[in-house]
Design goal:
The structure holds two protein chains of two kinds.
Chain A (H helix, E strand, L loop, with lengths): L1 E10 L2 E11 L4 E5 L6 H8 L7 E6 L14 E4 L11 H11 L4 H10 L15 H13 L5 E5 L7 H16 L3 E6 L2 H7 L2 E6 L2 E7 H8 L3 E5 L3 H10 L3 E3 L6 E5 L3 H10 L6 E5 L3 H9 L4 H4 L3 H4 L2
Parallel strand pairs in A: 3-7, 3-8, 5-6, 6-7
Antiparallel strand pairs in A: 1-2, 1-4, 8-9, 10-12, 10-13, 11-12
Helix pairs in contact in A: 2-3, 3-4, 7-10
Chain B lengths: L18 H13 L2 H27 L6 H9 L1 H6 L2 H23 L1 H8 L4 H34 L12 H26 L2 H20 L3 H9 L2 H6 L14 H25 L3
Chain lengths: 309, 276
């Protein structure tokens, strides 16, 4: 269980995390979603004690990270990839981490096998691809067999096979009863991975609910209609009780409140030609944009991710 | 590949992360990068090589040297010997000292290190102990190598043996000086967290400040010069206090230890306070 309470962090005049509170229970994959610069990485760094919070607290199983006796055996974290000495081998990188926790050398070999890096483990990490570095990071996170995992954008740089592997790993870890918090700015990724979402924008909590619920609650279904006479079609739809978004540019209308078959019937009765009639399901992206659109700082804070390391 | 081994070690060591584990971890970090291995080799070669070269030149030009220079060498031959090659060798120790910690910041390893040791101070303490021990060992190696090479070169003009008063202490002291100087440089690296800035600063303090302070006139200037970290510390590599020095060898060494303690305290304080 991760518990974040009233957490805030300011870098200079940028408020990266703004009085954020949420809980991450065990046994499911919790997605931590937000655009770049929303404060996801900063929140994780605060939970892990790498940065000092200005207000609030973050605990893991009721204890602050800094108070954990052997932290890697309680919490596994994957922050940015490539956060290792390019001149050191993956084996030596994992070995010093294992030694610091009193874990046996055997455990290093085990996690290397788990991430499929046994063959190259003795090579210096400077020559690794981003995907291989990402795997070293996963191996480091798994080193202490932790009950809690924090993964910051773990699929970054992975090939399709690697992405599939990370997804399955996260689901399996959650199924084993572990607490899994995984951040991403890719809503499509979260839609297939996360059971539950914590959505933030501009450092503030936007939503904390099930992934399915988030999509359903946030978005209406719509229909895309193209016609050579959009003005006439729009008046027909409005008269039938539908709403027309879209200004008729490109002769396209986005219709809500009417189903696609009904729109087709209306057009047929009026003898109108249709070039396209496409029912559109709300994607997580749209749901997300809809929910964050009112967050005024959202656009302005896009540069924070870089500034906040 | 997707199997997760529930591999908790059979006997979970209980309790806090013990310091011994951190020493082991820091030793792994130190020995697993090439820069350490190369620096140590370069240090020993440069130190013993330059000592042989310079003491050889002193011996070859003995008749042309001024009477005061000759008198100084005869009075304390071990100070002359250890003042040659080690003067250059300490440059490598300074660079390595800065790198042991600054490279963690430049590569991002510091995040992994601090996640493993979130209380932070034991990590830097363990790093300091391991690094100082390594420098002590290679420093003694270089000091004894330099002494035997240099005393052989100067034998005809200024004979010196380990059994002479203060000589064994001076040779052992040179290694001790390097170990503390290494910690001094590591503290600078921890404070600045940047390799280039750290090495420039360490070299500035060790090489440039003494040159500037040496130009200062009068007793004031002499005192400032004698209390500079590297000048004071290097006095331990002399058999006796020099005529123009205001500190004894052990006093000088204590001054270097004081400077180092001060910088380490600041480094510990900031390590605790700053975002990593």
């Amino acid at each position: 269980m991760i518990e974040v309470t009233d957490l805030s962090k300011r870098y200079g005049d940028k408020l990266a995390v703004d009085h954020l509170s949420f809980r991450v229970p065990p046994g499911r994959v919790t997605g931590f979603l937000g655009p770049n610069g929303a404060g996801k990485s900063t929140t994780m760094r605060l939970v892990l004690g790498l940065d000092r919070a200005d207000t609030g607290s973050a605990t893991i199983g009721g204890r602050r990270y800094a108070g954990l006796p052997r932290p890697l055996c309680t919490v596994g974290a994957l922050l940015e990839a490539k956060a290792m000495h390019p001149g050191r081998s993956a084996y030596q990188h994992l070995l010093f981490l294992a030694q610091s926790q009193g874990l046996p050398r055997r455990r290093v070999a085990e996690v290397l096998a788990l991430v499929g890096l046994t063959e190259v483990a003795r090579k210096r990490t400077g020559g690794y691809s981003l995907g291989m570095s990402q795997r070293v990071g996963v191996a480091a996170a798994m080193l202490g067999d932790p009950a809690v995992l924090l993964l910051d954008e773990p699929v970054n740089g992975l090939d399709p096979e690697g992405i599939q592997w990370v997804r399955n790993l996260m689901k399996q870890l959650a199924a084993e009863g572990r607490t899994v918090l995984v951040s991403s700015h890719l809503m499509s990724e979260m839609a297939v991975t996360a059971d539950h979402l914590i959505v933030i924008g501009a450092g503030r909590l936007i939503a904390d609910c099930g992934t399915q619920e988030f999509i359903e609650r946030s978005s209406q279904r719509s229909v895309l209609v193209r016609s050579p006479d959009p003005a006439r079609l729009a008046s027909l739809i409005t008269a039938a009780g539908g709403q027309v978004a879209g200004d008729g540019q490109d002769r396209a209308l986005r219709v809500t409140g009417l189903a696609a078959p009904r729109i087709g019937e209306l057009a047929a009765q009026a003898g109108l030609v249709l070039h396209e009639l496409t029912p559109r399901l709300a994607s997580l992206e749209e749901a997300f944009l809809e929910r964050t659109a009112h967050s005024v700082q959202y656009q302005a804070s896009a540069e924070l991710e870089g500034a906040g390391r | 590949m997707t199997t997760i081994t529930p591999a908790r070690p059979a006997s979970q060591p209980a309790g806090a992360v013990r310091f011994g584990r951190l020493l082991l971890a820091e030793w792994t970090k130190l020995r697993s990068v090439r820069s350490t291995v190369w620096s140590v080799i370069v240090f020993v070669v440069v130190t013993v090589g330059f000592t042989s070269l310079i003491t050889g030149l002193i011996a070859a030009n003995w008749s042309q040297a001024s009477p005061s220079d000759r008198a100084a060498t005869v009075a304390d031959p071990v100070a002359t010997i250890l003042g040659t090659g080690l003067y250059f060798g300490q440059l490598v120790i300074c660079a390595l000292g800065v790198l042991t910690i600054s490279a963690e910041y430049s590569t991002g390893t510091i995040r992994a290190s601090l996640l493993a040791v979130p209380r932070r101070l034991p990590m830097l303490a363990a790093k300091g102990v391991v690094f100082a021990l390594l420098v002590l060992i290679v420093g003694e190696l270089a000091a004894f190598g330099s002494f035997f090479a240099g005393s052989a070169m100067l034998h005809a003009h200024a004979p010196v043996a380990l059994s002479d008063p203060g000589v064994a202490r001076a040779v052992l002291g040179a290694g001790l000086y390097l170990a503390v100087l290494g910690l001094f440089a590591m503290a600078i690296g921890a404070l600045l967290r940047h390799t280039a800035a750290g090495i420039s600063t360490a070299i500035g303090v060790v090489f440039v400040l003494p040159i500037i302070a040496g130009l200062l006139p009068g007793s004031w200037g002499q005192h400032i010069y004698n209390y500079l970290p590297s000048v004071a510390g290097a006095m331990l590599g002399q058999a006796q206090q020099g005529a123009d020095q205001v500190l004894t060898p052990w006093q000088g060494f204590a001054v270097l230890c004081g400077w180092t303690a001060l910088l380490l305290a600041a480094a510990f304080y900031l390590l605790r306070r700053r975002d990593a």
